[in-house]
Amino acid sequence: MKNGNGKYQLKGLTLNELQQLFKGLGEPKYRGEQVFNWMYNHLSNDFGEMLNLSKSLREKLSEKFSLESLKLVTVQNSPETGTKKYLFRTEDGNKIESVVIPDKNRNTLCISTQVGCPLDCKFCATGLMGYTRNLTAAEIVDQYLLAAKDYGKKNITNIVYMGMGEPLLNFETTVKTLSIFTSELNKGLSRNRITVSTAGIPHKIKELADSGLRVKLALSLHSCFNDIRGKLMPINKKYPVEQNIEAIKYYSKKTKTPIVFEYTMFKDVNDRDEDIKALTKLCRQLSCKINVIPFNSIAHMNPGGFGATLEPTPKDRIDDFVQTLRENNVTVMIRKTQGDDIAAACGQLAAKNK
Ligand code: SAH
Predict the structure, then answer these.
(1) Domain termination residue (choose one: 30, 46, 66)
(2) What DSSP string runs through 194-263?
(3) pTM over 0.85
């Protein structure tokens, strides 16, 4: 794809695409590996640095190709938790956000796949801002590369596709970026440290299973009941719970990876005893873990309708809920709320455009 400056974007190309490109330029295939290393391991934004390429090749590349994609606008730090939020601007003036979340022995980068999101989940700030467009592979990869430049590449140990947007609605691009991150040549990352989170698009879940990438998959479940899930997540009317469960079973079997269910807790909506029963029944059917997420406020987005009625489940009830599930032999984690002081927690990403 051409940039505003009329040059072709090189970032976001997979190893295979780079090898083909150099072949097309009459260069040996290994040039593709060299440039892959420069872009994705050395975080290079400048052909001039690529000293294992001849000067004439470097000049030729900089005439035709570009390595510039996102611009870093601001970095915000959460003094409480060490969470860091990066605000980027795309070439066409859109704003997107990524977050680094530190934990005991890992630092997780949460990246966005779309500007806004078309799914309109009633509890999510990104959903409330609406949808503008898919991000390009360069823009998705660049969130990692620019955050890695600031945070240290080896310090970012995990990547989750849980920022703005629905990754499986930007499917081919998401797959391309996964192939870059999981490439053997990409140092410091591996497929079992990368998680794609989806609101549930069954045929795309199966396609991802068939891609051979074998990354971790998280399904935003939030309720086992179609009537409730449909109110929280309008996409459930198109793809109900059963279809998603069937698809994730396929995913889990094909990739031999356990599934993560994300479960944001809303008072009196999905925190009842019958919800515990339904979750227990579900978790007996496959290898999985539940991530319980406290509902982070989206009051700053002034939600209307059903969204305005949602309240967080009190902490005591979350603890009881989790305790009972554990007694039922379900593996459950409570995701710590991190970064809400800088609006960087789950579902709070909604960069103001302009
Ligand atoms: N579209 C993808 C990824 C983005 S959302 C998906 O739906 O999975 C990442 C996670 O944050 C999802 O589980 C989502 O349901 C959850 N989330 C969204 N808004 C939230 C909020 N206000 N509080 C807590 N979790 C939220």
Answers:
(1) 66
(2) EEEEES--HHHHHHHHHTT---EEEEE-S-SSHHHHHHH-GGGGTS-HHHHHHHHHHHHHHHT--EEEEE
(3) yes
